Amino acid sequence: MALRQLALGVLAAFWAGAAGAQGKGFLPYEDSGAVARGETLYQEFCASCHGVDLEGETANWRERKDSGRMPAPPHDASGHTWHHPDMVLFRLTKLGVEAVVGQGYESDMPGFGDVLSDAQIIEILAYIKSTWPDDVIGMHNARSGS
Q1: Tens digit of each residue's pLDDT (9 = 90 or more) over 29-71
Q2: Rounded Cα distance, 83 and 77, in Å
Q3: Which residues form the Cytochrome c domain (predicted)?
């Protein structure tokens, strides 16, 4: 029930533009239950592109593929996931990169809003964040605060 309330709060913040008002963002990365569920979901829905160990699609993830699209980046501390506030990560996952970036940007990253609930998306993101070192979590928290 608490995660459902969190998901509803995220949606309210999404529409109001007020996510992260407490300076830590809204991802429950310190909640072991949410993190465990998120890891299971990550392995099922994300690992095929972003890597079982969050390592990304390829070591050269900053270089375009033959298709002209960018490879799936790593979600570990070596990637750029932590550079984005919680709400941006939530929107990218729910809506897809093309929908969020716009302007004709093409990406292999679909939106998962029709496949995963908001609570499940939050748990996946919590799992990813839980794997980062404390200094990276601190920098991400600063980006996610308002």
Answers
A1: 999 999 999 999 999 999 999 999 999 999 999 999 999 999 9
A2: 10
A3: 33-132
CB atoms within 10 A of CB 52: 10
DSSP tag of 103: T
- Architecture (CATH level 2) of domain 28-60+68-144: Orthogonal Bundle (1.10)
Q: Which of 34, 33, 36, 80 is nearest to 54 (CA)?
A: 80
What does the alpha-carbon distance between residue 84 and residue 122 come to, in Å, rounded to a whole number? 14
DSSP 104-130: T---S----TTTS-HHHHHHHHHHHHH
DSSP string, 6-72: HHHHHHHHHHHT-TTTTSS-S--TT-HHHHHHHHHHHHHHTHHHH-TTS--S-TTTTS--TTSSPPP
pTM: 0.83
Q: Where are the domains of the chain?
A: 28-60+68-144
